[in-house]
Amino acid sequence: HKTHKARSIEALIEFYPGIRFALIGDNTQADAVAYAEVVEKHPGRIAAVFIRQAPGADLSQEELAAFAAIEAAGVKLWP
Question: What is the pTM of this model?
């Protein structure tokens, strides 16, 4: 799912070059990992990332690393 999500978001970013985006997802389909990839590839285009913590779905090490990468890029993160 993450590759498909990242490509879909990138298509929107390219189609709307003057707009910054807020990405909203949850931790059930590795959304944070896909979003971190987009943040890295498109600096300045993502204003914020919101990740809902689904009950009973623990965060993986990959998701925790994605959170760190998003924050390191200076993007507001609400996990």
Answer: 0.91
User: What would the 3-class secondary structure string for 23-73 be?
Assistant: EEEECCCCHHHHHHHHHHHCCCCEEEEEEECCCCCCCCHHHHHHHHHHHHC
State the chain's mean pLDDT as an integer. Answer: 93
User: Would you place residue 32 in the very low, low, confident or very high pLDDT band (cuts 50, 70, 90)?
Assistant: very high
Q: Are strands 21-26 and 46-52 parallel, antiparallel or unpaired?
A: parallel
Tell me the residue type at 33.
V
Q: Provide the 3-class DSSP secondary structure of residue 21.
A: strand
